Amino acid sequence: MNILADVFAIEEEIIAWRRHIHAHPELGYAEFQTAEFVAGKLGEWGLEVHAGVGGTSVVGVLHGASAGRSVALRADMDALPVTEETGLSFASQNPGCMHACGHDGHTAMLLGAAKVLAAKQSEIAGTVKFLFQSAEECSPRGGAIPLIEAGALDNPKVDYIFALHLWPEVPFGKVGVKAGPLMSASDRIQVHVTGRGGHGAAPHQTVDAVVVASHIVTALQAIVSRQMDPLEPVVVTIGRFIAGQRHNVIAPTAYLDGTVRTQNEVVRQSLPHKISQLVEGIAAGFGASASVDYEFGYPTLHNHPEGARMVVEATDLALGEGNVVTLERPSMGGEDFAYYLDHAVGAMFWLGCKGPGASEFPVHNSRFDFDEQALSRGTAVMAEVALQALRK
Ligand SMILES: [Zn+2]
Ligand SMILES: [Zn+2]
Description:
By secondary structure, this protein is of the alpha/beta class. It has helices at residues 3-8, 11-23, 32-44, 103-118, 144-149, 209-227, 265-285, 305-319, 374-391, and strands spanning 48-53, 57-63, 66-76, 125-133, 160-167, 175-177, 180-183, 185-194, 198-199, 234-243, 249-250, 253-262, 289-298, 301-303, 324-326, 345-352.
């Protein structure tokens, strides 16, 4: 029987789980209720359950009836510090916290895949691990590394690993995938500028940290436009600029907090030096001083060609041919699923989620929502890709 039929039989449950998780969002490393909910379901279906793995992550293990390979499927469980404005009947009951990146859907779909595959236990040769990961949004220190360090990919060693992300820009219900880079390296820069404060009417007696930091913000864009190969994607964004106390006091210090996105590791490694040189040089030119903390976050997510092919095959089998979109371009977003692909062959794919029942708003927006009809499709592809991997 086609896996989609198995999934359709539990579609209402998957939607109900998604709504429950959506109504009770929790921030990264604090997914206590979500983890308990997930662990409870996995236990109900007879899986071996490991809770509190590397923090709040949950691992479910489905031992097949006979020996074989090991495949892992991963979902992220964390929400964002966003105040929900969707007006949905199942909107967040946790003020200031919202599933604005679709991780509620990812968790529900992985639960669905676990339930469908658990029912096939007698036909399965090998092991399927279901990784419900905490804190994907907590770059540069997300939940993937603690989960890997806790041994989630060992005993038995995972041969293949897959994950999906709901994606409004992919045609609805279709699977978007590509070999090679899919998501970007995401690093953090923090700049501390030190000048000399004083009276707002006497700038000549001061070193104005606001003016120095403003020049730095502007000049950082010249790194992208003047120091980088124009054919290499680089983004430098300063998201926070903090300085000053009063309108008529020249600020003695300023603080900038930003993110740097790249796809090429050589380019990435060149940036800490280039940014420090520019920042320190500009500060010195104004008689101020400045320092840069450059923190490497998630690396570029490289899908293995074989993993991407397996997603295509599984989608053809689960949803029928014509449901795969070969992506031409990666995203500058980051994903700590990248780390798993250093340990096992696999791929992340995107699932088109902006159907007739979805909002117009992008992920991380306070009005983001997706069409729940995507859930059964994603669940089916996840379950099918695991079955295919075990047959390799
Ligand atoms: Zn996100
Ligand atoms: Zn996300």
